[in-house]
Amino acid sequence: MRIFTASLATETNTFSPMYTDLDSFYQCFYAPPGQHPATPTLCSAPLVACRELSATDSSIEVIEGSCAWAEPGGLLNRQSYEHLRDEILTQLRAALPVQAVVLGLHGAMVAQGYDDCEGDLLSRVRQIAGDKVVIAATLDPHSHLTAQRLNNANLLIAFKEFPHLDFMQRARELVTLSVATVRGQYQPVMRSFDCRMIDVLPTSREPMRSFIDKLSLLEGQNDILSISVIHGFMAGDVAEMGTQLLVISNNQPQRAAELAEQLGMELFSFRGKTLPAFATIDTALDDATMIAGPVVLADVWDNPGGGVAGDGTLILAEIIRRGISKVAVGTIWDPMAVKLCFAAGEGASIILRFGGKSCATAGDPIDAQVTVQRLQRNAVQYFAGSEVPMGDCAVISFAGIDVILNSNRCQSFDPSLFTALQLEPQQYQLLLVKSTNHFYQGFAPLAAKIIYVDAGAPYPSDPVRNGYRKLRRPLWPIVESPFA
Ligand SMILES: [Zn+2]
Fold first, then answer.
1. In what order do the strands lie in the sheet with 188-194?
2. Element (H, E) at 236
3. Which of 88, 189, 253, 273 is the most buried (most CB within 10 A)?
């Protein structure tokens, strides 16, 4: 059995000014055939799962294509998308004949002229590979589920967890199901249900925790092969944006459709109840200074993982104004300031302007007399075993505040982002991180308290006000009763 595998993924915030091009992929993660490291990345895990399986089953031959991932950002330019897509399609043509194509996708990639990049890619893969080949892909739940994707793939599986700690597990499932399908053990049929809502659905807390556990228990019974929740991605202005429930059955289309609707309506009943209470900047700082630290403040709407810059200063400016010390900030994206710090050298005391440069809403640049505390080329943090490059980084210190400036945009996944720069997270009263929920598992063990802070910008976090132009159907909360 010959399996072709590749990965092309990013998450496009169509409201973001951080446009995405080939360099965004090359800088973040790019592995040509045979060059993928042993460790998986979030979206390239199927390749690693294919390698694992072929190592234990000599009847399986894996043909590797390219894998590319760019940090979430704004619209991908057309030429860059077509270049990466055609690279993979050319590799696929050269690999024929194959019995399965297993892809690591994200599902919220939007390029100029392509509102549904993954649908476009899957339909071209189908044209090249033919009707008999099993086409399978992993998806991030923060994606759009389109008819074009369902029509051209046999198996689509989204990560169940948010934080997405289960990406390797889902990739293994996908590869196992693909192989079983090629061997004739299953005839997968996918059915989806449109929940007509968009919300943020962390699974680290109720009601989503129990819901996801229930889905896992339903799998493997009554010919149900897989159940995925597509949370949707509210920062993508495309026609099919929104939450969907996806069920794959073994040749039981009606059962799959009924289960998708039943679970989808249960999910609809959770709307508006899934997020923890977000604090304002003022209440967060009041609370955070009342108890012994470290208190973790999550700047939920300046999360580069959602495609914004990650150079916002709204919370830090208030920390400075209040004179709070023993603070570590991880991170503020500012490659220009990093360059200046490298030029000044470790130990230098300089006047530096940093942060607040990418957009009008996320705060002003901060001007301070700082000490360049530490410089680190190619710093790396870790997320569930995968390496996340932070690029060249500088730690600057002033008024009891240590700020990590990074040159690769990335969200704050894990305390390793501080230790990579030799900052000891336990020694601070406040740790300010930029993440919506991926930080949670990593930071919970060391945090005296975790506070989610709603600074109001720059992520388009309010669907009612986002002004979608391409959305085609009623969705809660834009419409109160979308099924009426
Ligand atoms: Zn996601």
1. 188-194, 244-250, 224-230
2. none
3. 88
What tokens appear for 260 in the block?
């998708």
| DSSP secondary structure letter of residue 77 | P
CA of 161 to the centre of ligand 1 (A): 9
Q: How far is the CA of 133 from the centre of ligand 1 (A)?
A: 28
> What integer pLDDT is reported at residue 299 of this predicted model?
98
Q: Which of 84, 83, 79 is nearest to 69 (CA)?
A: 84
Centre of ligand 1 to C-alpha 162, Å, is 7
What whole-number distance in Å separates Cα of residue 138 and Cα of residue 174?
A: 7
**pLDDT at residue 276 above 90?**
no
480's tokens: 């109160």
How far, in Å, is the centroid of ligand 1 from the Cα of 313? 24
Cα 254 to ligand 1 centre (Å): 29
The yes-or-no verdict on residue 384 having pLDDT over 90 is no
**437: which DSSP letter?**
S
How many residues does this entry show for the chain? Answer: 484
Closest C-alpha to 25, from 151, 109, 100, 130: 109
Q: What is the pLDDT of residue 386?
A: 84
d(CA 243, CA 194): 6
Question: What is the 478 CA–ligand 1 centroid distance (Å)?
Answer: 22
DSSP 8-state secondary structure symbol assigned to residue 359: -
How close is the Cα of 140 to the center of ligand 1, in Å? 5
Q: 83 CA distance to ligand 1 centroid (A)?
A: 24
pTM of the model: 0.92
Burial class (CB in 10 A: 0-12, 13-18, 19+), 94: exposed
Nearest to 303 by CA among 144, 457, 468, 76: 457
Interval between CA 41 and ligand 1 midpoint (Å): 13
Calpha distance 166→275 (Å, rounded): 20
pLDDT digits (tens, 9 = 90+) for 81-130: 999 999 999 999 999 999 999 999 999 999 999 999 999 999 999 999 99
Helix, strand, coil % over all residues of the chain, rounded to 5: 30, 25, 45
Token match 């600057």: residue?
Answer: 396
The rounded Å distance from CA 65 to ligand 1 centre is 23
Structure tokens at 348: 């230098």
CA angle 333, 408, 387 (to 5 degrees): 125
DSSP 407-422: SS-----STHHHHTTT
How many Å lie between the centroid of ligand 1 and the Cα of residue 198?
14
